[in-house]
Amino acid sequence: xxxxxxxxxxxxxxxxxxxxQWRAExxxxxxxxxxxxxxxxxxxxxxxxxxxxxxxGGLKELKAWLGHTxxxxxxxxxxxxxxxxxxxxxxxxxxxLRILPNPGMEGTAEYVYQKASEILKKLxxxxxxxxxxxxxxxxxxxxxxxx
Length: 147
What we know:
By secondary structure, this protein is of the alpha/beta class. The protein has one domain: 6-pyruvoyl tetrahydropterin synthase/QueD (Tetrahydropterin Synthase, Chain A, 2-Layer Sandwich). Helices cover 28% and strands 33% of the residues.
């Protein structure tokens, strides 16, 4: 007998934040911002007793973490040569700094996938998992991380 596979999706939107791509040889090396949106695909081999892949109401920890990390924050790469200046602005209260391995869309998608997977594992063990994270910076541009 083949195992069943189920999928569900969830979107969180409205996370205005700024970042910069310091390595870019374009205007993207300047500080700029977007209202980011996060789209998740979840899968499970069996459903909950309610008949769900995941309980969307039970994703409060993920939503809170997204808010803490991306709502009115400044994202900077851990190797940005201007990091000390941004840390000083954070200390003075001029910005709310978050240091990421890669604050671009692709890097953010992987970063968010790692956290979402950690949260799902706590909630569901191996019964349900994240199969895709998409980070959208606007209606035209997004990046996905697919493990």
